[in-house]
Hints:
It contains four helices and eleven strands; from the N terminus they run αβααββββββββββα. It is α+β, with helices and mostly antiparallel strands. The strands form three sheets. A five-stranded mixed beta sheet has the order 5-8-11-7-6, covered by helices on one side. A hairpin with a 2-residue loop joins β6 (152-157) and β7. The longest helix has 33 residues, at 2-34. It is elongated and about 70 Å long. The N and C termini lie far apart (54 Å). The model is unreliable at 1-8 (pLDDT under 50).
Amino acid sequence: MTDTTTRTPGRAGPLLRRAVATEGAMWRSLYLWARRRPSALEPGDAPFSYLGVVKPILGVLIGLSAVEIPIFDLIVSNVIPWRPARWIVGVLGIWGLLWMVGLFASMSIHPHTVGPRGIRIRLNAAIDVTVPWDDVEAVHARYRSLPSGRSVQVEPDGDRQVLQFVVASQTSVDIRLRRPLTLDLSKGRTEPVDEVRLYADDPDGFVRRARQFTTSV
């Protein structure tokens, strides 16, 4: 019992910090998207979107969130005879709607990039990882459908460890590494991985761009 009580604050602290950072990044992305200010690109970088596969889903969710606000307001006003309840439900509904739009915005303004420094992998504002060309052995386009929808996964593939950045349970680009590599994520460093997979809407264009920087790719 003592150990559990002692360790709980240690676990809660990083979780709370990540939650606050995620919330702040979402609102910042919404502001930049509304102002039509995408993330600045490094000289020579080409952006590659990963939003296309989830755009219809996000569109439906945003539409439903907008419709729910007046519906819940009508229900609460007729069921709960307490006026502040309408304000609470209304604020929560608007916050949920803006959060969904913020997620769309974050994915829009943070694309993957391929440029002189290497391959920069983004996943909204939460993931920002660069794989230098010195660590890249080969880049191939290959669609894969995964059983899990978790956005970041590390799975074995034969005798290789694979780090996957997943969108809508899919990846479409395989990046084979020259040597096992550890990468910094928001939750800490990964274990050594031999391959990185990601989803891009235009995997063929992604690979063509990569091959402009190294003949071995």
